[in-house]
Amino acid sequence: MKILQPLLCAVLLLAGLAWHPLATAQGSTARPLPAANQYSEKGADTCLACHDEEGSAYSASAVFKTKHGMRGDKRAPFGPGNLQCEACHGPGALHARNKKADSINAFRTDGKATLEQRNQACMSCHAGSSRTGWHAGAHERSNVACTDCHKVHKTHGDPALSKVSETEVCLACHKAQRADFHKPSSHPVRQGQMSCSGCHSPHGSTTVAMLKKPTLNQTCYDCHADKRGPLLWEHQPVSENCASCHAPHGSVRPALLSKSPPLLCQQCHSQASHPSLARSANALPGGSAGGAAFLVAGSCSNCHSQVHGSNHPAGAKLMR
Ligand code: HEC
Ligand code: HEC
Ligand code: HEC
Ligand code: HEC
Ligand code: HEC
Ligand code: HEC
Ligand code: HEC
Ligand code: HEC
Ligand code: HEC
Ligand code: HEC
Predict the structure, then answer these.
(1) In 168, 191, 234, 270, which residue has its Cα 20 to 30 A from 293's Cα atom?
(2) pTM of the predicted model, to two decimals?
């Protein structure tokens, strides 16, 4: 008897293994590990048994205060019948048993999940709206992940979604632009009055530099509608490209100018009549040439003050 019992068990076990893998589940100590693609039975309740912690990077309660935690929204992870935590993290039955970090997608760059898998976890619900340009954008091409910008479990909300904190999210990678926005004349981004996404679509677009609107000028007209016209006397470069005179991020010159007048104007107007006259030191105030108006301060715009175009019947030369 003493010999028979274990023998019988072993036979049963082997038979079980051969015919039905689940048969190994005899006895509570030897439950089989679930397959890697198996979801947990109780959803969030399973996860929260271990993950009820609160910290700066992860807060269990924070996720329930966001749109993702809405129980009434059919589309949301916590909506009726949805996969809850595992809608984003993927099947977690195995992880809930083995408690190993590498058995679950934690959206880590150094984790097992590929960039595509990590982004797909979000795109499974978010492929529409402004993400339609995602595959055309520089961010996807440069292996940037949704979660490089978005944080889902933060007590103070997702930093990408507020004007004030968004800028820091972007500048963490875009160091050169940080310098631009510290120049004496700049768009009031640092002051929190507007953000990078006032001009850019961070999710990608088909416009140069992922601008929000189909052209550079249309992007500017969003806020500077007065420059759109129509004007009686247009100044051609203005309707063509604001960036022929302005550095959109920032400049050491006033009004974000990319060069100081008269050089700014002479880039294009060096061939015709008075703008091409040599400006010498004599033309400075007190000099003998009397041409100071051409050189100091506003220079050309001392006379041609309406550089963006004019609606005055006699404004052809952009002077009124
Ligand atoms: C029995 C306890 C337990 C359960 C249940 C559990 N986890 Fe974990 N989980 C852990 C432990 C322990 C770690 C830390 C592993 C480490 O750091 O080595 C962890 C780590 C994680 C991580 C971070 C991995 C990383 O790379 O840092 C995520 C994400 C995670 N769990 C999600 C879940 C989800 C989603 C569920 C529910 C499906 C779940 N966990 C259920 C114990 C559990
Ligand atoms: C909307 C998608 C989403 C949902 C829903 C979600 N998570 Fe996460 N989780 C993430 C992302 C993305 C990260 C990576 C860090 C971040 O972006 O905040 C993460 C990170 C974690 C981590 C690791 C934190 C660390 O220390 O790095 C744990 C643990 C975790 N989630 C558990 C859970 C649990 C438990 C639930 C359900 C109550 C849940 N998550 C629901 C997307 C989600
Ligand atoms: C199961 C579907 C689902 C998944 C998976 C999912 N989301 Fe969402 N998400 C939603 C829904 C629904 C909303 C609310 C949309 C609305 O109200 O218009 C939302 C809202 C958001 C918002 C806006 C939040 C706000 O307060 O306006 C962001 C940002 C976001 N999700 C990012 C992510 C990221 C990043 C991931 C991947 C880690 C992810 N989502 C995964 C369904 C999902
Ligand atoms: C480069 C940073 C960045 C990346 C990468 C990024 N986002 Fe966003 N996302 C933002 C910013 C900034 C906003 C808020 C301003 C806006 O709507 O343009 C936003 C808004 C959102 C919103 C809410 C508004 C809306 O458009 O519905 C959702 C949802 C969202 N992102 C999902 C995603 C998903 C999914 C991915 C990955 C495919 C992703 N984001 C990648 C920066 C980013
Ligand atoms: C994780 C790093 C990272 C973050 C965060 C990030 N970017 Fe980028 N971004 C890149 C990389 C990499 C490129 C491609 C190389 C380059 O042009 O510098 C890029 C390119 C760009 C471009 C140029 C696109 C083109 O076609 O030339 C713009 C505009 C841009 N990002 C805006 C943003 C904005 C706005 C944010 C914040 C909402 C942001 N980025 C956050 C890494 C990042
Ligand atoms: C007032 C609108 C505006 C704002 C605000 C803005 N940008 Fe831009 N950005 C542009 C324009 C326009 C271009 C294209 C310049 C060109 O092609 O002449 C550009 C180009 C870029 C590029 C491509 C490389 C380059 O410098 O030409 C990056 C990267 C970029 N912006 C990042 C950012 C980041 C990060 C922020 C926020 C800190 C930001 N931008 C805020 C208008 C803006
Ligand atoms: C999201 C709104 C927004 C967009 C889009 C925008 N701007 Fe601005 N712009 C502002 C604000 C706000 C100011 C600051 C106004 C103030 O201080 O009175 C400003 C100021 C300026 C100034 C004057 C700066 C100074 O120091 O006097 C110039 C020039 C300018 N913008 C050019 C542009 C150009 C070129 C574009 C397109 C590439 C553009 N803006 C797109 C909001 C915007
Ligand atoms: C031919 C060069 C040139 C072009 C092109 C140009 N600007 Fe200007 N802009 C200037 C100059 C010069 C000033 C400074 C005017 C002054 O000293 O009063 C200025 C000033 C500004 C100002 C601040 C003062 C004001 O008038 O509100 C804004 C805003 C502005 N430009 C927006 C734009 C926008 C938007 C575009 C494109 C639609 C554009 N500019 C195209 C030369 C130009
Ligand atoms: C990017 C090139 C470019 C820049 C920079 C530029 N302009 Fe022009 N400007 C033009 C073009 C093109 C015309 C149209 C010429 C024509 O109709 O023959 C024009 C027309 C003019 C006219 C009207 C000429 C006429 O015959 O009616 C004046 C005045 C003028 N610009 C002044 C300026 C001033 C002042 C600046 C500097 C603030 C400036 N421009 C910068 C390209 C430029
Ligand atoms: C002292 C005032 C004054 C200053 C300063 C001035 N202009 Fe003029 N500009 C004029 C007048 C007046 C005309 C009209 C001439 C006419 O109708 O025959 C004119 C005409 C023009 C024209 C039209 C073509 C032509 O020659 O008739 C252009 C282009 C022009 N100016 C560009 C410039 C540029 C560029 C500068 C700066 C280097 C500049 N102007 C500085 C007064 C000035």
Answers:
(1) 234
(2) 0.92
